[in-house]
Amino acid sequence: MVSYQFLMDLALILLSTKVLSMATQKIHMPQVVGALMAGLILGPSVLNLLRETQFISEMSELGVIVLMFTAGLGTDIKELKKAGKSGFLVALCGVLVPLVMGAGLAYFGGQAGLIDIGGFLSDLFVGTILTATSVSITVETLKEMGKLNTAVGNTILAAALIDDVLGLIVLTLVSSFAGDGASIYIVLVKIALFFVFAFVLGLLALRFFGWMAEQSSGRDLHRFPLAAFVLCLVMSYCAEVYFGVADIIGAFGAGLAVASTSKAKFIESKFEPVSSLLLTPIFFASIGISAQLPAASGKMLLFSVLLLGVAVFSKLVGCGLGAKICHFDNQECVQIGTGMACRGEVALIVANKGLSMGVLNSMFMGPVIITVICCSILTPVMLKVLFRNQTEVSLQESNLVDKYSETEQLDLVSEQLLQANRALMEGGAKAAEEASKQPRQRRQPARPCAVREK
Protein backbone atom coordinates (compact mmCIF):
# COMPACT_ATOMS: atom_id res chain seq x y z
CA MET A 1 0.00 0.00 0.00
CA VAL A 2 1.28 3.44 -0.95
CA SER A 3 1.96 5.75 1.99
CA TYR A 4 1.25 9.44 1.53
CA GLN A 5 3.12 10.57 4.63
CA PHE A 6 5.79 12.08 2.40
CA LEU A 7 3.30 14.76 1.33
CA MET A 8 2.87 15.97 4.91
CA ASP A 9 6.63 15.75 5.52
CA LEU A 10 7.25 17.85 2.42
CA ALA A 11 4.64 20.42 3.45
CA LEU A 12 6.19 20.74 6.94
CA ILE A 13 9.68 21.13 5.52
CA LEU A 14 8.72 23.79 2.96
CA LEU A 15 6.58 25.81 5.37
CA SER A 16 9.02 25.72 8.30
CA THR A 17 12.10 26.46 6.20
CA LYS A 18 10.41 29.45 4.57
CA VAL A 19 9.12 30.92 7.83
CA LEU A 20 12.45 30.57 9.63
CA SER A 21 14.41 31.73 6.57
CA MET A 22 12.36 34.93 6.53
CA ALA A 23 13.00 35.34 10.26
CA THR A 24 16.77 34.94 9.91
CA GLN A 25 16.80 37.30 6.94
CA LYS A 26 15.15 39.96 9.12
CA ILE A 27 18.15 39.86 11.48
CA HIS A 28 20.62 40.01 8.56
CA MET A 29 21.58 36.35 8.55
CA PRO A 30 21.57 34.02 5.52
CA GLN A 31 18.36 32.16 4.81
CA VAL A 32 20.22 28.85 4.88
CA VAL A 33 20.52 29.28 8.66
CA GLY A 34 16.74 29.36 8.92
CA ALA A 35 16.45 26.18 6.85
CA LEU A 36 18.98 24.46 9.12
CA MET A 37 17.12 25.55 12.23
CA ALA A 38 13.87 24.24 10.76
CA GLY A 39 15.42 20.81 10.31
CA LEU A 40 16.85 20.85 13.82
CA ILE A 41 13.56 21.87 15.42
CA LEU A 42 11.34 19.45 13.48
CA GLY A 43 13.87 16.61 13.59
CA PRO A 44 14.75 14.11 16.34
CA SER A 45 16.86 16.73 18.12
CA VAL A 46 13.80 18.72 19.36
CA LEU A 47 10.20 17.97 18.32
CA ASN A 48 10.80 14.66 16.53
CA LEU A 49 8.15 15.43 13.90
CA LEU A 50 10.40 14.50 10.98
CA ARG A 51 12.89 11.69 10.45
CA GLU A 52 15.36 10.89 7.70
CA THR A 53 13.33 8.81 5.20
CA GLN A 54 14.35 7.45 1.83
CA PHE A 55 12.24 10.11 0.12
CA ILE A 56 13.89 12.96 2.04
CA SER A 57 17.34 11.43 1.51
CA GLU A 58 16.93 11.06 -2.26
CA MET A 59 15.33 14.48 -2.67
CA SER A 60 18.13 15.95 -0.59
CA GLU A 61 20.73 14.39 -2.89
CA LEU A 62 18.92 15.75 -5.94
CA GLY A 63 18.78 19.13 -4.20
CA VAL A 64 22.52 19.32 -3.63
CA ILE A 65 23.16 18.24 -7.23
CA VAL A 66 20.94 21.04 -8.57
CA LEU A 67 22.49 23.48 -6.08
CA MET A 68 26.01 22.73 -7.34
CA PHE A 69 24.80 22.80 -10.95
CA THR A 70 23.40 26.31 -10.48
CA ALA A 71 26.65 27.29 -8.74
CA GLY A 72 28.52 26.20 -11.86
CA LEU A 73 26.01 28.10 -14.01
CA GLY A 74 26.76 31.24 -12.03
CA THR A 75 30.53 30.87 -12.45
CA ASP A 76 31.81 32.94 -15.34
CA ILE A 77 35.00 31.39 -16.73
CA LYS A 78 35.92 34.70 -18.39
CA GLU A 79 35.73 36.43 -15.01
CA LEU A 80 37.92 33.70 -13.54
CA LYS A 81 40.58 34.55 -16.11
CA LYS A 82 40.23 38.26 -15.33
CA ALA A 83 40.47 37.77 -11.57
CA GLY A 84 44.17 38.52 -11.72
CA LYS A 85 47.09 37.74 -9.49
CA SER A 86 45.62 39.18 -6.30
CA GLY A 87 42.38 37.19 -6.51
CA PHE A 88 44.20 33.95 -7.29
CA LEU A 89 46.81 34.28 -4.54
CA VAL A 90 44.25 35.26 -1.91
CA ALA A 91 42.08 32.29 -2.90
CA LEU A 92 45.00 29.84 -3.04
CA CYS A 93 46.35 30.79 0.38
CA GLY A 94 42.78 30.95 1.68
CA VAL A 95 42.30 27.31 0.70
CA LEU A 96 45.66 25.81 1.70
CA VAL A 97 45.92 27.35 5.18
CA PRO A 98 42.38 26.34 6.33
CA LEU A 99 42.93 22.87 4.85
CA VAL A 100 46.09 22.33 6.91
CA MET A 101 44.80 23.99 10.07
CA GLY A 102 41.44 22.21 9.91
CA ALA A 103 43.08 18.82 9.40
CA GLY A 104 45.47 19.58 12.27
CA LEU A 105 42.60 20.50 14.57
CA ALA A 106 40.75 17.28 13.71
CA TYR A 107 43.88 15.20 14.37
CA PHE A 108 44.71 16.75 17.73
CA GLY A 109 41.03 16.85 18.70
CA GLY A 110 40.83 13.12 18.06
CA GLN A 111 44.03 12.48 20.00
CA ALA A 112 42.68 14.49 22.94
CA GLY A 113 39.39 12.60 22.87
CA LEU A 114 37.30 15.69 22.09
CA ILE A 115 35.62 14.04 19.10
CA ASP A 116 35.75 10.77 17.21
CA ILE A 117 36.83 11.78 13.70
CA GLY A 118 38.09 8.48 12.31
CA GLY A 119 41.49 8.67 10.63
CA PHE A 120 43.62 10.65 8.20
CA LEU A 121 40.99 10.98 5.47
CA SER A 122 38.46 12.18 8.01
CA ASP A 123 40.95 14.81 9.17
CA LEU A 124 41.38 15.96 5.58
CA PHE A 125 37.61 16.17 5.17
CA VAL A 126 37.43 18.50 8.17
CA GLY A 127 40.08 20.70 6.55
CA THR A 128 38.18 20.59 3.25
CA ILE A 129 35.03 21.83 4.99
CA LEU A 130 36.89 24.95 6.11
CA THR A 131 38.24 25.82 2.64
CA ALA A 132 34.96 27.15 1.22
CA THR A 133 33.88 30.78 1.55
CA SER A 134 30.38 32.25 1.42
CA VAL A 135 30.58 35.97 0.62
CA SER A 136 26.88 36.83 0.39
CA ILE A 137 26.87 38.36 3.89
CA THR A 138 30.22 40.06 3.26
CA VAL A 139 28.91 41.62 0.04
CA GLU A 140 25.77 42.91 1.73
CA THR A 141 27.82 44.39 4.59
CA LEU A 142 30.28 46.10 2.24
CA LYS A 143 27.41 47.48 0.14
CA GLU A 144 25.78 48.89 3.24
CA MET A 145 29.01 50.68 4.18
CA GLY A 146 29.72 51.80 0.59
CA LYS A 147 32.95 49.78 0.41
CA LEU A 148 32.05 47.15 -2.17
CA ASN A 149 33.51 49.05 -5.16
CA THR A 150 36.94 49.25 -3.54
CA ALA A 151 40.18 47.30 -4.01
CA VAL A 152 39.31 45.25 -0.92
CA GLY A 153 35.76 44.50 -2.11
CA ASN A 154 36.84 43.57 -5.62
CA THR A 155 39.60 41.30 -4.31
CA ILE A 156 37.16 39.51 -1.99
CA LEU A 157 34.71 38.90 -4.86
CA ALA A 158 37.43 37.63 -7.20
CA ALA A 159 39.00 35.42 -4.52
CA ALA A 160 35.62 33.95 -3.55
CA LEU A 161 34.99 33.04 -7.18
CA ILE A 162 38.28 31.13 -7.42
CA ASP A 163 37.96 29.84 -3.86
CA ASP A 164 34.92 27.71 -4.70
CA VAL A 165 36.66 26.09 -7.68
CA LEU A 166 39.84 25.32 -5.69
CA GLY A 167 37.80 23.98 -2.79
CA LEU A 168 35.91 21.62 -5.10
CA ILE A 169 39.20 20.39 -6.59
CA VAL A 170 40.36 19.56 -3.07
CA LEU A 171 37.04 17.80 -2.43
CA THR A 172 37.53 15.81 -5.64
CA LEU A 173 40.92 14.55 -4.45
CA VAL A 174 39.86 13.78 -0.88
CA SER A 175 36.57 12.09 -1.79
CA SER A 176 38.30 9.99 -4.45
CA PHE A 177 40.85 8.69 -1.95
CA ALA A 178 38.03 7.91 0.45
CA GLY A 179 36.16 5.85 -2.13
CA ASP A 180 36.99 2.19 -2.63
CA GLY A 181 40.42 2.02 -1.03
CA ALA A 182 42.27 1.76 -4.36
CA SER A 183 45.93 2.68 -4.70
CA ILE A 184 46.93 6.29 -5.04
CA TYR A 185 47.97 5.80 -8.67
CA ILE A 186 44.60 4.37 -9.69
CA VAL A 187 42.81 7.19 -7.90
CA LEU A 188 44.92 9.85 -9.64
CA VAL A 189 44.35 8.18 -13.02
CA LYS A 190 40.58 8.14 -12.41
CA ILE A 191 40.61 11.80 -11.46
CA ALA A 192 42.62 12.70 -14.58
CA LEU A 193 40.25 10.67 -16.74
CA PHE A 194 37.26 12.39 -15.16
CA PHE A 195 38.61 15.84 -16.00
CA VAL A 196 39.27 14.70 -19.57
CA PHE A 197 35.76 13.25 -19.76
CA ALA A 198 34.24 16.45 -18.35
CA PHE A 199 36.23 18.63 -20.76
CA VAL A 200 35.27 16.59 -23.84
CA LEU A 201 31.61 16.33 -22.81
CA GLY A 202 31.60 20.05 -22.07
CA LEU A 203 32.86 20.85 -25.58
CA LEU A 204 30.26 18.54 -27.13
CA ALA A 205 27.55 20.15 -25.03
CA LEU A 206 28.70 23.61 -26.09
CA ARG A 207 28.37 22.66 -29.77
CA PHE A 208 25.06 20.90 -29.19
CA PHE A 209 23.54 23.94 -27.45
CA GLY A 210 24.84 26.15 -30.26
CA TRP A 211 23.17 23.89 -32.82
CA MET A 212 19.90 23.94 -30.86
CA ALA A 213 20.03 27.74 -30.67
CA GLU A 214 20.33 27.93 -34.46
CA GLN A 215 17.45 25.52 -34.96
CA SER A 216 15.09 27.04 -32.40
CA SER A 217 14.93 30.58 -33.86
CA GLY A 218 13.54 31.87 -30.56
CA ARG A 219 10.81 29.19 -30.29
CA ASP A 220 10.36 26.28 -27.86
CA LEU A 221 13.03 27.57 -25.47
CA HIS A 222 12.12 25.05 -22.77
CA ARG A 223 14.21 22.44 -24.55
CA PHE A 224 17.36 24.21 -23.30
CA PRO A 225 16.73 23.76 -19.53
CA LEU A 226 15.69 20.17 -20.19
CA ALA A 227 18.89 19.38 -22.10
CA ALA A 228 20.96 21.13 -19.42
CA PHE A 229 19.33 19.09 -16.65
CA VAL A 230 19.96 15.84 -18.56
CA LEU A 231 23.62 16.83 -18.93
CA CYS A 232 23.79 17.58 -15.19
CA LEU A 233 22.34 14.19 -14.22
CA VAL A 234 24.52 12.26 -16.67
CA MET A 235 27.74 13.93 -15.52
CA SER A 236 26.78 13.45 -11.86
CA TYR A 237 26.10 9.76 -12.43
CA CYS A 238 29.28 9.16 -14.42
CA ALA A 239 31.42 11.02 -11.88
CA GLU A 240 30.14 8.92 -8.99
CA VAL A 241 29.86 5.52 -10.66
CA TYR A 242 32.67 5.35 -13.19
CA PHE A 243 35.34 7.71 -11.86
CA GLY A 244 34.86 7.53 -8.10
CA VAL A 245 34.44 11.32 -7.91
CA ALA A 246 31.66 12.98 -5.91
CA ASP A 247 28.48 13.48 -7.92
CA ILE A 248 28.35 17.16 -6.98
CA ILE A 249 31.66 17.66 -8.84
CA GLY A 250 30.05 16.31 -11.99
CA ALA A 251 27.07 18.62 -11.46
CA PHE A 252 29.36 21.62 -11.02
CA GLY A 253 31.27 20.66 -14.18
CA ALA A 254 28.01 20.46 -16.12
CA GLY A 255 27.11 23.91 -14.84
CA LEU A 256 30.45 25.30 -16.01
CA ALA A 257 29.88 23.83 -19.48
CA VAL A 258 26.37 25.28 -19.78
CA ALA A 259 27.58 28.65 -18.43
CA SER A 260 29.61 29.10 -21.62
CA THR A 261 26.54 28.81 -23.88
CA SER A 262 24.43 31.67 -25.19
CA LYS A 263 21.37 30.44 -23.24
CA ALA A 264 23.10 30.26 -19.85
CA LYS A 265 21.13 33.11 -18.25
CA PHE A 266 17.83 31.75 -19.51
CA ILE A 267 18.62 28.26 -18.21
CA GLU A 268 19.73 29.65 -14.85
CA SER A 269 16.49 31.62 -14.52
CA LYS A 270 14.47 28.44 -15.10
CA PHE A 271 16.40 26.39 -12.54
CA GLU A 272 16.21 29.01 -9.81
CA PRO A 273 12.51 28.48 -8.92
CA VAL A 274 12.85 24.69 -8.75
CA SER A 275 15.95 24.97 -6.62
CA SER A 276 14.81 27.67 -4.21
CA LEU A 277 11.18 26.54 -3.82
CA LEU A 278 11.66 22.79 -3.47
CA LEU A 279 15.05 21.12 -3.63
CA THR A 280 17.33 23.46 -1.68
CA PRO A 281 15.01 23.73 1.38
CA ILE A 282 14.78 19.93 1.53
CA PHE A 283 18.57 19.59 1.39
CA PHE A 284 19.34 22.04 4.19
CA ALA A 285 16.45 20.81 6.32
CA SER A 286 17.72 17.24 5.95
CA ILE A 287 21.09 18.33 7.35
CA GLY A 288 19.35 19.68 10.43
CA ILE A 289 17.24 16.53 10.72
CA SER A 290 20.29 14.25 10.58
CA ALA A 291 22.34 16.31 13.09
CA GLN A 292 22.63 14.65 16.51
CA LEU A 293 22.66 17.44 19.06
CA PRO A 294 21.22 15.73 22.18
CA ALA A 295 24.41 13.73 22.71
CA ALA A 296 26.55 16.89 22.72
CA SER A 297 28.86 17.03 25.75
CA GLY A 298 31.36 19.46 27.21
CA LYS A 299 34.06 18.00 24.95
CA MET A 300 31.86 18.47 21.90
CA LEU A 301 31.16 22.07 22.89
CA LEU A 302 34.89 22.71 23.32
CA PHE A 303 35.60 21.21 19.90
CA SER A 304 32.86 23.40 18.38
CA VAL A 305 34.48 26.52 19.84
CA LEU A 306 37.91 25.42 18.56
CA LEU A 307 36.48 24.69 15.11
CA LEU A 308 34.89 28.14 14.97
CA GLY A 309 38.16 29.77 16.05
CA VAL A 310 40.18 27.87 13.44
CA ALA A 311 37.56 28.65 10.76
CA VAL A 312 37.94 32.40 11.32
CA PHE A 313 41.66 32.48 12.12
CA SER A 314 42.71 30.28 9.17
CA LYS A 315 40.99 32.52 6.62
CA LEU A 316 42.36 35.60 8.33
CA VAL A 317 45.91 34.24 8.12
CA GLY A 318 45.63 32.55 4.72
CA CYS A 319 43.80 35.27 2.79
CA GLY A 320 45.70 37.98 4.65
CA LEU A 321 48.98 36.35 3.62
CA GLY A 322 47.88 36.21 -0.02
CA ALA A 323 46.86 39.88 0.13
CA LYS A 324 50.19 40.80 1.69
CA ILE A 325 52.07 39.13 -1.15
CA CYS A 326 50.01 41.30 -3.52
CA HIS A 327 51.23 44.45 -1.69
CA PHE A 328 48.09 45.35 0.25
CA ASP A 329 48.75 47.19 3.50
CA ASN A 330 48.21 45.55 6.88
CA GLN A 331 44.75 47.01 7.43
CA GLU A 332 43.54 45.86 4.01
CA CYS A 333 44.99 42.38 4.58
CA VAL A 334 42.98 42.03 7.78
CA GLN A 335 39.86 43.32 6.03
CA ILE A 336 40.23 40.84 3.17
CA GLY A 337 40.88 37.93 5.53
CA THR A 338 37.86 38.84 7.64
CA GLY A 339 35.62 39.21 4.58
CA MET A 340 36.58 35.69 3.46
CA ALA A 341 35.92 34.12 6.89
CA CYS A 342 32.19 33.55 6.43
CA ARG A 343 31.06 29.97 5.77
CA GLY A 344 27.82 28.82 4.21
CA GLU A 345 26.22 26.30 1.91
CA VAL A 346 29.40 24.81 0.41
CA ALA A 347 30.76 23.94 3.86
CA LEU A 348 27.49 22.18 4.64
CA ILE A 349 27.55 20.38 1.29
CA VAL A 350 31.08 19.08 1.89
CA ALA A 351 30.24 17.99 5.44
CA ASN A 352 27.10 16.22 4.25
CA LYS A 353 29.12 14.47 1.53
CA GLY A 354 31.61 13.22 4.10
CA LEU A 355 28.72 11.99 6.22
CA SER A 356 27.08 10.12 3.33
CA MET A 357 30.40 8.49 2.40
CA GLY A 358 30.91 7.28 5.96
CA VAL A 359 34.10 9.31 6.37
CA LEU A 360 32.67 11.64 9.04
CA ASN A 361 30.71 10.77 12.15
CA SER A 362 27.15 12.14 12.29
CA MET A 363 28.05 13.83 15.58
CA PHE A 364 30.34 16.16 13.64
CA MET A 365 27.43 17.94 11.93
CA GLY A 366 26.64 19.78 15.17
CA PRO A 367 29.99 21.65 15.30
CA VAL A 368 29.77 22.40 11.57
CA ILE A 369 26.30 23.93 11.91
CA ILE A 370 27.46 25.99 14.90
CA THR A 371 30.45 27.22 12.89
CA VAL A 372 28.30 28.26 9.92
CA ILE A 373 25.82 30.13 12.12
CA CYS A 374 28.46 31.88 14.23
CA CYS A 375 30.56 32.87 11.20
CA SER A 376 27.43 34.42 9.68
CA ILE A 377 27.01 36.53 12.83
CA LEU A 378 30.66 37.44 13.46
CA THR A 379 31.74 38.37 9.92
CA PRO A 380 29.56 41.51 9.45
CA VAL A 381 30.30 42.65 13.02
CA MET A 382 34.07 42.37 12.51
CA LEU A 383 33.91 44.06 9.10
CA LYS A 384 32.03 47.05 10.50
CA VAL A 385 34.63 47.40 13.27
CA LEU A 386 37.53 47.20 10.79
CA PHE A 387 36.01 49.78 8.42
CA ARG A 388 34.75 52.07 11.19
CA ASN A 389 37.64 54.56 11.12
CA GLN A 390 38.34 54.27 7.39
CA THR A 391 36.58 57.16 5.69
CA GLU A 392 38.62 57.73 2.54
CA VAL A 393 38.75 54.87 0.03
CA SER A 394 39.31 54.81 -3.72
CA LEU A 395 36.39 53.38 -5.66
CA GLN A 396 36.97 51.00 -8.58
CA GLU A 397 34.91 49.67 -11.46
CA SER A 398 34.25 45.94 -11.31
CA ASN A 399 32.37 43.52 -13.55
CA LEU A 400 31.98 41.19 -10.56
CA VAL A 401 30.11 43.84 -8.59
CA ASP A 402 27.90 44.59 -11.60
CA LYS A 403 27.20 40.88 -12.08
CA TYR A 404 26.27 40.46 -8.42
CA SER A 405 23.86 43.38 -8.65
CA GLU A 406 22.42 42.02 -11.90
CA THR A 407 21.65 38.67 -10.31
CA GLU A 408 20.19 40.39 -7.27
CA GLN A 409 17.75 42.46 -9.38
CA LEU A 410 16.60 39.64 -11.68
CA ASP A 411 13.50 38.70 -9.69
CA LEU A 412 12.50 42.35 -9.25
CA VAL A 413 12.76 43.04 -12.98
CA SER A 414 10.77 39.90 -13.80
CA GLU A 415 8.00 40.93 -11.41
CA GLN A 416 7.87 44.45 -12.89
CA LEU A 417 7.59 43.04 -16.42
CA LEU A 418 4.77 40.72 -15.37
CA GLN A 419 2.92 43.58 -13.68
CA ALA A 420 3.32 45.79 -16.74
CA ASN A 421 2.07 43.00 -19.00
CA ARG A 422 -0.91 42.38 -16.69
CA ALA A 423 -1.78 46.08 -16.72
CA LEU A 424 -1.67 46.18 -20.52
CA MET A 425 -3.87 43.10 -20.78
CA GLU A 426 -6.38 44.46 -18.26
CA GLY A 427 -6.39 47.80 -20.04
CA GLY A 428 -6.99 46.13 -23.40
CA ALA A 429 -9.78 43.98 -21.98
CA LYS A 430 -11.42 47.03 -20.39
CA ALA A 431 -11.23 49.00 -23.63
CA ALA A 432 -12.77 46.10 -25.54
CA GLU A 433 -15.55 45.80 -22.96
CA GLU A 434 -16.34 49.53 -23.19
CA ALA A 435 -16.34 49.35 -26.95
CA SER A 436 -18.79 46.45 -26.89
CA LYS A 437 -21.21 48.44 -24.68
CA GLN A 438 -21.39 51.38 -27.07
CA PRO A 439 -24.46 51.30 -29.45
CA ARG A 440 -23.59 50.43 -32.95
CA GLN A 441 -24.41 53.07 -35.54
CA ARG A 442 -26.32 51.82 -38.55
CA ARG A 443 -24.60 52.62 -41.77
CA GLN A 444 -26.65 54.82 -44.11
CA PRO A 445 -27.05 53.53 -47.63
CA ALA A 446 -25.08 55.47 -50.17
CA ARG A 447 -27.19 57.92 -52.16
CA PRO A 448 -26.83 57.92 -55.90
CA CYS A 449 -25.08 60.94 -57.22
CA ALA A 450 -27.26 63.18 -59.39
CA VAL A 451 -25.86 63.75 -62.84
CA ARG A 452 -26.15 67.33 -63.88
CA GLU A 453 -27.37 67.69 -67.42
CA LYS A 454 -25.39 69.96 -69.56
TrEMBL record:
Chief site of localization: membrane
Residue ranges occupied by any Cation/H+ exchanger transmembrane domain in the UniProt entry: 17-386
Domain of life, per lineage: Bacteria
Transmembrane spans: 31-50, 88-108, 120-139, 151-178, 184-206, 226-254, 274-293, 300-323, 364-387
Keyword Aminoacyl-tRNA synthetase in record: no
Residue span of region Disordered: 428-454
Pfam families: Na_H_Exchanger (PF00999)
Membrane topology: Multi-pass membrane protein
Subcellular location: Membrane
Entries under InterPro entries matching the protein: Cation/H_exchanger_TM (IPR006153)
Keywords for this protein: Antiport, Ion transport, Membrane, Sodium, Sodium transport, Transmembrane, Transmembrane helix, Transport
Signal sequence annotation: none
UniProt name for this protein: Cation:proton antiporter
Lineage: Bacteria, Bacillati, Bacillota, Clostridia, Eubacteriales
